[in-house]
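Researcher: Quick test of sequence recovery. Tokens follow.
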């Protein structure tokens, strides 16, 4: 499987999961886990809490946050690395800044309500029961959010593939490492 196929497989799995489950954050993490074996089931499970703008709080986009977590899981420095070399945090900052900048270049924001305005013409306070009900009743909302999930997944998968040659080795699910 080449790099393009790896990314496309992750995006396809994430979008299908979003349309089926309507949980942007978990769909993103699941799509990435479907091709990268370093993402444990516990990350997919925990990522569900980020849906709806982080805990349905209408904050940062859950798909964005999950992609950022997956990139960080691979590329961030550890506490021990930073204790031994405080400058190692620059590697971490470079990775999350790159992810943020690439996401914002596409959507102009990482903020769920602003993304909703772009998709649906208005934002919804997902912590308000009536607005959540209206949001859930929007025709095609899961499919429109799947495009955002696909974007977050694509950026994360591309970064993981791009940085893999320079960083820790990762295994792609279903692909045997070269011998």
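Model:
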């Amino acid at each position: 499987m080449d790099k393009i196929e790896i990314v496309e497989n992750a995006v396809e799995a994430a979008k299908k999961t979003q349309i089926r489950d309507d949980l942007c954050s978990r769909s993103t993490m699941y799509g990435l886990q479907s091709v990268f074996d370093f993402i444990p089931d516990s990350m997919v499970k925990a990522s569900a809490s980020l849906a709806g703008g982080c805990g349905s709080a209408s904050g940062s986009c859950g798909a964005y946050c999950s992609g950022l977590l997956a990139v960080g899981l691979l590329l961030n420095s550890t506490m021990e690395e930073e204790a031994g070399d405080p400058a190692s945090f620059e590697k971490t900052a470079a990775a999350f800044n790159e992810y943020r900048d690439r996401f914002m270049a596409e959507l102009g924001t990482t903020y769920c309500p602003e993304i909703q305005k772009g998709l649906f013409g208005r934002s919804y306070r997902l912590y308000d029961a009536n607005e959540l009900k209206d949001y859930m009743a929007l025709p095609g909302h899961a499919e429109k959010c799947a495009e955002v999930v696909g974007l977050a997944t694509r950026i994360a998968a591309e970064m993981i593939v791009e940085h893999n040659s320079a960083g820790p080795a990762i295994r792609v699910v279903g692909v045997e490492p070269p011998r």
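DSSP finds nine helices and no strands in the chain.
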